[in-house]
Backbone:
């Protein structure tokens, strides 16, 4: 079913008007998480201050200890927060905290809860594949690839939430204001703009905010953008998608990525197949 | 010829007895272990880790410091500010630092000022890098195994060999064989092949390496069927593949290697076409990493 282009344009106009007026409720990152990220990004951060911040949010503290123990090196488990922080290091801690914050955005209640959950599963799949491809080619910054994959669709739940708000304003009381195809089209068209707002509010580095590119960059073959573009198609091809997909088009994108990134298509297929072996929590 | 072979066997037996005796008595000396790296490892293993003390110790070894800094800079995303050694230590965290140290110390173990050891271990090092590279790539394809751990396990799986080579040289001196070449290359190789695993395991225990790394060192010929996608199994498979591709230090039985590859392929769920793609260009990748 093709969405009504006039309706799509009108809905987009309404949503963009809210963005322009600064009346967009960008999902708030947990205050403790934001403070932790601020500390981590200081040139010579103070571990004691970081630990004090983390201690204010038991969920984050527990997550950090759990992650440190999941990645045990040498058989010793950690029970104290300071040990966990030193073990993981700033780069890994940033990933853990941002993943926690991003998950919260996708857990929003309401009529789009199920769609949001599917987008989250897709994002985790893209992130895992990006990290695996980066590891395969020996990149030491595989965590950055994971993060870029995880956040590439962060704007989608924001637009979904904006649509809900717009509905309350323009069509209160109507249950099905937009059909699913129109809904998906509007989200597809606007989510990159919404992601920019999230990036600004969360102080995310520009380098990891990828996904806008419509073609591969030949100049930087193993860039975050190229790998995420490729793994986005791989995840969709493996069934981690929120809507209908054109499998032939996905195959072309994967094949192109395989050539650009420099990984044989059969190896790519094997990496993609591994996705279903480890369930997404 | 028969007499020569018998003498060689006796020598192997005698040297083996000396080496194993040292291990059981806890007198195994790790010959070329850099003191700074050892101190750093001890600080990392202290439950009350002190970063300032660690950085100060690390600074005493410029090559190791440069390696840690380079690693942190290449691992960092664009937002991270890694310019000093202290920042690099904070950024990487204990787990990655430990991997970095072990990798550095392993490289050092394969270096020697003695030309015979250097020559004997050069091929072992290239083989180890080939196994490590393949193990990392196979891990990336098999969900559930950590690529970094597999790389390290691959690098370390033959770590007993250079240590044993140095011990042989030491034994040679102690036995009063002033003239080099008393031990022919076949005996040398045979001694190392028969004893290196026990030495490697002793080292892994000393360095408190993860069990799956130690498991890959202790036995490379039997897969663990209970833990199919483990770092040890991936290293065993990568070891067989590397040997088939010519990265070997001894004569290998092609039938044995094929059997190991066949079992590993089944354990890890990787078919022949994918294996062929992974091993393509291995020599270039090893040359870059070694």
Residues:
């Amino acid at each position: 079913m093709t969405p009504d282009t006039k309706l799509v344009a009108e809905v987009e106009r309404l949503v963009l008007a809210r963005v322009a007026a600064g009346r967009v409720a960008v999902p708030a990152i947990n205050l403790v998480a934001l403070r932790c990220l601020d500390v981590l990004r200081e040139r010579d951060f103070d571990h004691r201050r970081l630990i004090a911040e983390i201690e204010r949010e038991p969920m984050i503290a527990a997550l950090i200890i759990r992650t440190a123990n999941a990645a045990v090196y040498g058989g010793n488990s950690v029970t104290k927060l300071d040990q966990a922080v030193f073990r993981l290091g700033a780069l890994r801690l940033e990933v853990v905290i941002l993943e926690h914050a991003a998950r919260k955005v996708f857990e929003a209640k309401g009529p789009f809860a199920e769609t949001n959950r599917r987008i989250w599963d897709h994002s985790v799949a893209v992130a895992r594949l990006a990290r695996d491809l980066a590891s395969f080619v020996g990149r030491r910054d595989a965590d950055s690839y994971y993060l870029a994959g995880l956040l590439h669709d962060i704007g989608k739940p924001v637009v979904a939430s904006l649509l809900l708000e717009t509905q309350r304003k323009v069509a209160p009381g109507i249950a099905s204001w937009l059909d699913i195809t129109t809904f998906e089209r509007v989200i597809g068209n606007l989510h990159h703009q919404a992601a920019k707002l999230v990036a600004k509010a969360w102080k995310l580095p520009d380098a990891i905010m990828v996904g806008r590119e419509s073609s591969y960059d030949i100049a930087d073959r193993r860039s975050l953008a190229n790998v995420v573009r490729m793994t986005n198609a791989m995840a969709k091809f493996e069934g981690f998608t929120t809507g209908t997909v054109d499998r032939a088009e996905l195959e072309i994108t994967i094949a192109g990525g395989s050539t650009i990134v420099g990984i044989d298509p059969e190896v790519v297929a094997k990496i993609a197949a591994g996705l279903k072996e480890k369930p997404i929590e | 010829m028969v007499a020569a072979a018998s003498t060689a066997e006796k020598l192997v037996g005698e040297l083996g007895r000396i080496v194993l005796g040292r291990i059981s008595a806890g007198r195994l000396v790790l010959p070329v272990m850099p003191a700074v790296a050892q101190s750093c490892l001890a600080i990392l293993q202290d439950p009350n880790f002190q970063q300032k003390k660690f950085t100060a110790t690390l600074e005493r070894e410029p090559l190791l410091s440069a390696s840690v800094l380079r690693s942190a800079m290449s691992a960092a995303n664009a937002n991270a500010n890694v310019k000093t050694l202290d920042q690099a230590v904070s950024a990487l965290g204990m787990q990655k630092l430990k991997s970095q140290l072990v990798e550095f110390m392993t490289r050092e173990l394969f270096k020697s000022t003695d030309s015979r050891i250097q020559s004997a271990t050069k091929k072992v090092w290239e083989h180890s890098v080939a196994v490590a590279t393949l193990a990392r790539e196979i891990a990336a394809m098999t969900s559930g195994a950590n690529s970094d751990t597999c790389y390290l396990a691959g690098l370390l799986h033959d770590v007993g060999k250079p240590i044993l080579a140095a011990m042989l040289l030491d034994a040679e001196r102690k036995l009063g064989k002033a003239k080099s070449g008393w031990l022919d290359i076949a005996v040398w190789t045979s001694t190392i092949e028969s004893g290196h695993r026990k030495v490697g395991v002793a080292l892994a225990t000393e360095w408190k390496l993860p069990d799956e790394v130690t498991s890959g060192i202790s036995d490379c010929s039997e897969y663990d069927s209970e833990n199919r996608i483990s770092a040890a199994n991936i290293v065993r498979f990568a070891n067989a593949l590397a040997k088939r591709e010519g990265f070997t230090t001894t004569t290998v039985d092609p039938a044995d290697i094929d059997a190991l590859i066949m079992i590993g392929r089944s354990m890890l769920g990787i078919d022949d076409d994918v294996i062929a793609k992974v091993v393509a260009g291995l020599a270039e990748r090893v040359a870059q990493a070694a």
Observations:
- Residues 33-110 of chain B form one domain.
- The longest helix of chain B spans residues 115-141.
